[in-house]
Design a protein that fits this description.
55% of the residues lie in helices and 9% in strands. The protein contains 25 helices and 12 strands. The chain has a 5-stranded parallel β-sheet with strand order 2-3-4-1-5, sandwiched between helices. A 3-stranded antiparallel β-sheet has the order 10-12-11. Helix 14 runs antiparallel to helix 17, helix 17 packs antiparallel against helix 18 and helix 23 crosses helix 25. The longest helix has 36 residues. It is extended, with a radius of gyration of 36 Å. It starts with a strand and ends in a 6-residue tail after the last strand. Its main location: nucleus.
Length: 571
């Protein structure tokens, strides 16, 4: 049973991926049954058998043609057909997936379960029920006799928003990453997924397009190739490197260090520049991997300490690639939470950060020694813990005075506080060293894609300007010779473009008859004798309909023979 909740639309994609996966592995065949196919048990069996056998249509056609000579032909809802398929494909299970189980007739569903259960010794069956409400409610609708025949397990499908967050976080924090999305592009993609409902597949397509834009539009992307060396550098590529912002900053840094000879070699020697560029690309990629490894460690600390406002995965990544994470409130809250952790939580933190924080191993050994010698039950707390705060009331000059203080620490708690302080200091240093500003790295343009312009125009298109330009200047878009040019208000223009230009010259309300007469005068010429008026009228109405479809005009409520103007060019 797959509990869908509000993600009922995601069941189709899930079943499709499941079907492709199990069929590729050769472990099962999946038949998807919809409520429209469940009018009766016979209809369900027909759909089930047809779906299973259709994936092996060539094989089944040969078998059916041979069986016509060997014995009687089976009916399309006879489970012997399915039994024969299982015998020919040993080891495969038959998965029956009910998309929206609540929409099925429960009498038909109960009879189907009973019938298929009687074949379980010959046909290995697995049911998948998509449940939009709750498992208890779904189970209550079935007879107990049918429920007793099933062995059930419940799976919760991940929310699409969580899936998108996880995809984005895992992609950016991949340990072997070579290319990352910058602050502006990441922010645009995440905002687009939040403002408009996006499935994980749609979000993945957006990410693929973004990577494609980098490799197709950025000549520095060639530096990410594994086999490239300094001999492959063309003079044009070297010139492009000398014009990027990070090169200018790198040269200025060298000049500040009085390394003028190095700067001169970078400007004059292409081979030296190529070697420096390749080395800095590798160094930059290693730095980015360390930064995102640090982001992953911070996320685990936030999860273990359970801070009040845990940021989203995308928020952590966007702040990190923007260089804003190190000075954010997220770090302050995480470090503050570390000071107040109890001994059992600190053990989990040290185990979690054992591979990333060098100090974690030694602190873990010291903590285990302290816990093994601890007297009495309970966990150890630091002096920063809120439970240590005490309140005292004293009478001063016949007035009550409330004072705050802290309870006295035992020797074990004092030692535990010193361990926590060392962990706090080590983790803070680890964050400062690794949470850098990515755009400060030399050659970051090669491995950090942050050009918002082309991505924004694609994912957030603004078609109105393009439509208005096309209607105003159709020669810019239509495939004519370079010498072809449409005169203003000429019959050679497309009818919709001509009517649009007349529309621009009109007021807020235009008489449709006047518009028609002006249109007909232009397309028929001065005499109008050689042009069919009925043909012109049909072209006119089609052009008016297209303007209505584009939301530029509508019929006026005040005057039935007038059109109301809905938009003005440029506004």
């Amino acid at each position: 049973m797959i509990t869908l909740g509000s993600n009922i639309s995601s069941i189709s994609g899930l079943l499709d991926r499941l079907r492709k996966r199990v069929q590729a592995d050769g472990i099962a065949q999946v038949a998807v049954i919809e409520a429209g196919d469940a009018g009766s048990v016979k209809n369900v069996l027909k759909t089930l058998i047809r779906n299973i056998l259709s994936d092996n249509s060539a094989e089944e056609t040969d078998i059916n043609s041979a069986s016509c000579h060997l014995g009687p032909k089976h009916l399309p809802y006879d489970l012997e057909l399915l039994h024969g398929y299982v015998q020919r494909n040993t080891g495969q299970k038959i998965v029956v997936a009910f998309k929206d189980s609540e929409a099925f007739d429960h009498g038909v569903l109960s009879d189907l379960i009973s019938l298929l259960w009687s074949w379980q010794d010959r046909i290995p069956l697995v049911f998948l029920f998509g449940v939009a409400t709750s498992v208890d409610l779904f189970e209550s609708r079935l007879p107990r006799s049918s429920v007793s025949l099933l062995q059930g397990r419940c799976f919760d499908i991940r929310d699409s928003v969580d899936s998108i967050q996880r995809i984005f976080f895992d992609l950016e924090t991949c340990p072997d990453g070579t290319l990352w999305l910058g602050h502006r592009v990441s922010n645009l993609l995440v905002e687009q997924s939040e403002d408009h409902f996006q499935s994980p597949e749609r979000f993945s397509s957006s990410l693929k397009y973004t990577y494609m834009a980098h490799f197709f539009a950025n000549p520095l992307a060639v530096l990410l190739s594994n086999g490239i060396c300094d001999k492959d550098f063309q003079p044009e590529l070297c010139e492009a490197i000398r014009n990027i912002p990070s090169f200018r900053r790198h040269a200025q840094t060298l000049l500040d260090k009085k390394e003028t000879k190095t700067v001169k070699k970078l400007l004059d020697n292409d081979v030296f520049l190529a070697q420096e560029a390749l080395n800095n690309v590798i160094i930059g990629q290693e730095t980015m991997n360390r930064m995102f490894k640090c982001v992953g460690s911070l996320k685990r600390v936030l999860d273990v300490t359970r801070t009040a406002k845990t940021p989203s995965l995308s928020d952590l990544v966007i702040r990190a690639v923007g260089g804003e994470l190190n000075s954010s409130k997220i770090i302050i809250e995480a470090l503050s939470a570390i000071k107040k952790v109890t001994s059992n939580i600190l053990v989990s933190l040290l185990i979690t950060l054992g591979e990333t924080l060098p100090l974690a191993g030694d602190l873990y050994d010291e903590l285990q020694t302290l816990l093994s010698n601890k007297k009495g039950p309970g966990v150890l707390r630091t002096k920063y813990d809120d439970s240590r705060i005490t309140h005292k009331t004293t009478l001063v000059a016949q007035r009550l005075k409330l004072t705050k203080g802290r309870a006295k620490l035992s020797d074990e708690e004092a030692e535990y506080t010193r361990i926590v302080d060392r962990f706090h200091s080590g983790f803070r240093t680890y964050l400062i060293e690794n949470l850098i500003q990515p755009t400060s790295l030399f050659m970051h343009e090669a491995f950090l894609y942050d050009f918002k312009g082309p991505i924004g125009d694609t994912f957030v298109p603004r078609p109105r300007f393009t439509v208005e330009r096309a209607l105003s200047n159709p020669s810019d878009y239509l495939g004519f010779d370079s010498g072809t040019f449409f005169e203003s208000l000429s019959a050679s223009q497309p009818a919709t473009a001509l009517l649009y230009q007349l529309y621009l010259e009109s007021g807020a309300v235009v008489n449709i008859y006047d518009l028609w007469k002006a249109f007909y005068t232009i397309i028929s010429g001065e005499d109008g004798e050689n042009f069919d008026e009925r043909m012109a009228l049909s072209i006119f109405y089609r052009a008016v309909s297209e303007l209505k479809m584009m939301g530029m005009v509508k019929s006026s409520r005040r005057k039935t023979d007038h059109l109301a103007k809905l938009s003005w060019i440029g506004l």
